[in-house]
Amino acid sequence: MPEVGREQVLAHRIAAQGLHRDRPDPAGLAVFDLGLQSTQRDTAAISLAARLPGPVTEESIVEDSRFVLAWTHRGAPHFHRADGIGRVAAALVPLGEDDAMARMQWQRKQVEAAGMGALDGLFTAAKALRKVVTGVMSKGAASEAITKIIPDGLSYWCRVCGATHVLEQLMRLAAIHGGVRLEAGAQPATLAPLDGRPRMRTTPDPAAAASVVRDYLHLHGPATAKEAAGFVGTTVSVVKRIWPDELTEVRVDGRKAFLPVRDVAALENPPEPDVVRLLPPWDPFLQSRDRSLLVPDRARQKEVWRILGNPGVLLADGEVAGVWRSKGSGRKRLDFTITAFDPLPPAVRKAAEDEAERVAKTRGFADLRVSWD
After folding, report:
1. What is the reported pLDDT for 307?
2. Among 193, 214, 232, which residue terminates a domain?
3. For residue 358, which of 346, 372, 347, 368 has the smallest C-alpha distance?
4. Full strand arrangement of the beta sheet holding 36-37
5. Per-residue pLDDT, 169
6. How many other CB atoms are there within 10 angstroms of residue 329's CB atom?
7. Do residues 219 and 233 lie in contact, with contact meaning Cβ atoms separated by under 8 Å?
């Protein structure tokens, strides 16, 4: 049984997630096996800029027909390879009522109060989305139309809007099953039918669901069933029902975890993590659910993962070495504030400033200013 320490695990993940910039084509990046989260404008492009050797702009992914944006894992927007979106949809069919309810997350009680099961609610909303979204339309317009044809219990009164809306998490989870995607680059959120409008699947596909867990273990392993469940947005018992084959047990600083057998050699001999990168909020590297391994210090964890408004992260030589924020001055200059957790060598500071210039160009700013806090 392999035994490794956290530094070796982090070096392995940095390599597995393409942060050495050793692949010139985004379609070849393994992070797209799970999907690239795009919660805020430009975050996906900045994640690409941290991984690709060439120049990157927002259009690099928005206008690339090989990718499609959709609400998928945990109802969050992710870019996926377009030719694999059917497999993603199959993997997201809940394995049962317990799985469906777990995925409702903060809106479980509202779904329970609706007087119907989570599975019925999910596919009722999916059918409504399929009926309503026949072309490009705003999220607000779609929500209004869906609310009119679903049971009252699946909607709520929004005091801010002064209107009744379909439950937010329900809509997000149902969209992929209703054959609905997001318009990449559109603000505010805009919906459209998936190309080819694949038929709605309601029968679980355990093999497809297991592939999500396997991909998580490849990119974020060695990891546990609890951590994989956190990424999927379900319970540990559900994940154990689809626990993949061909895994090996690994000890990480004495803690039991698992890794695909095919990744053992890469874990045992990872390349040196001698890279400096500015990662955006919700970057794949930060999606690992073992936050205490990524950032052992609890106070620093609270700086990286905040209740609201996560900063970006400075990754330096295999460690989360600080956080960063930026603010645009018109469309001419992007001002960065980088806060290092510990004193950094001049070479690392210079590399971080070079990365800031790369982020500024990715976001379309011609000039930048970097301040160290």
Report:
1. 86
2. 193
3. 368
4. 36-37, 77-81, 67-71, 180-182, 190-193, 137-138
5. 96
6. 12
7. no
Other CB atoms within 10 Å distance of the CB of residue 135? 7
Which of 193, 226, 252 corresponds to the end of one domain? 193
Same domain, 55 and 161: yes
Q: Tell me how far apart the alpha carbons of residues 212 and 220 are, in angstroms, rounded to a whole number.
A: 12
Compute the distance between CA of residue 80 and CA of residue 32 in angstroms, rounded to an integer.
6
User: Tokens at residue 210, please?
Assistant: 């297991």
Neighbours of 45 (CB within 10 A): 25
Please choose, from the candidates 315, 370, 357, the residue with its C-alpha nearest in 3D space to the C-alpha of residue 13: 315
Structural domain tally of the chain?
2
What would the two tokens of residue 206 be? 């355990």
pLDDT given for residue 172 in this prediction: 98
Looking at the DSSP bridge assignments, the partners of residue 327 are 335
Q: Does the residue 110 lie in any domain?
A: yes
- CA angle 288/289/293 to nearest 5° reads 80
How far is the C-alpha of 153 from the C-alpha of 114, rounded, in Å?
4
Rounded distance, CA 291 to CA 271, Å?
22
Per DSSP, the three-state class of 183 is: coil
The neighbouring-strand residues paired with 279 are: 313
Residue 151 and residue 148: Cα distance in Å, rounded?
A: 8
Strand, coil or helix: what is 29? coil
And the tokens for 250?
């690994």
Between helix 139-147 and helix 118-132 the angle, nearest 10°, is: 120
**222: its two tokens:** 């060695």
What's the pLDDT score for residue 114?
85
- Please say whether the beta carbons of 363 and 334 come within 8 A: yes
Query: Please, are residues 242 and 225 in contact by the beta-carbon 8 Å criterion?
Result: no
Q: Please report whether residue 203 resides in a domain.
A: no
pTM: 0.95
Residue ranges with strand state E in 262-318: 276-279, 312-316
DSSP state, 346?
A: H
| Contact between 190 and 136 (Cβ < 8 Å) | yes
- List of residues 6+ apart from 123 with CB closer than 8 A: 174, 177, 200, 202
Tell me the residue range of the domain where 133 lies.
3-193
Tokens of 309: 């408004």
pLDDT of residue 329: 77
User: Can you list the residues of the chain whose pLDDT is less than 70?
Assistant: none
